[in-house]
Request: fold
Amino acid sequence: MREDHKATCAALAAIAMLALCGCTMVRRGPSVMVDALLKQSDPALVQAGTPAYLLLLDALVESKPDKPDYLLAASDANTAYAAAFLSQVELERARIMYAKARDYGLKVLCRNRQFQQVADRPFAEFETAVPSFGKRDVPALYSTATAWLGWIINSPNSMEATSQLSKALALMGRVLELNPGYQHGGAEMFFGIYYAVQPRGAGQDLEKSRQHFLRAIEFGGPDYLLCRVAYAEFYARYAFDAELFEEVLRDVLAHEGGSPGVRLMNAVAKQRANALLDDMEDLF
Reply:
């Protein structure tokens, strides 16, 4: 995989998929356990408790393989677990889980007959069907795109994986068009990262990145910290704005309160903020 593609995929996967952990699963399928997990402030406890839930969801999909709610809940759960606990640590396990999650999502999207006909075709044909998706398809588009990116970054030596990046970006682009506020502005954050990490003179646009991040922060509200950490890590870092970088991250660490439903993701965000501040001299 070329280094610029590798860096782009890594950034998008790391942030967009952690955003997926936030609340997608509570809207579909069995939700009681997910509600409990999201209210935890200890990521290690969640890591230990989640595998049983993954097995349950896979069993539900096997029992009703055409039920969209089960497919998307299983897709989100596999993606979230792989992103939070396996990516860059156990590549092969993560790759398998991302592929499963991607395929669950694609199965839902292929209920659209126009898309089904071109889903495995070259990008020029694939993209002709993307506009056929509407607002009700946003959860499946978002879930599939994030899982697909995870599979790409965990396939670092695969030209086949690299060639599919444009398809995942097209699906997320459709989310941005249809419902930019979905998942705390997840698509806005996604493209904020994308425009920041592109090479200079070959796609980088820091003003576009800043605008996407500001909209994501507005959608996320004052108590959702993950998009603020991403704003510092990607926009401020690539703009060489050390003052903004430090200010945003220290504000994140000083934040208290927030709804129980974002407790887990805020704990993850604070862990990342601490790590970034520790590395600040190296980053700037």
Notes: The two ends are 27 Å apart (CA to CA). The chain has 16 helices and no strands. Residues 3-179 form a domain with the Serine Threonine Protein Phosphatase 5, Tetratricopeptide repeat fold (CATH 1.25.40.920). The CA atoms of residues 88 and 282 lie 21 Å apart.
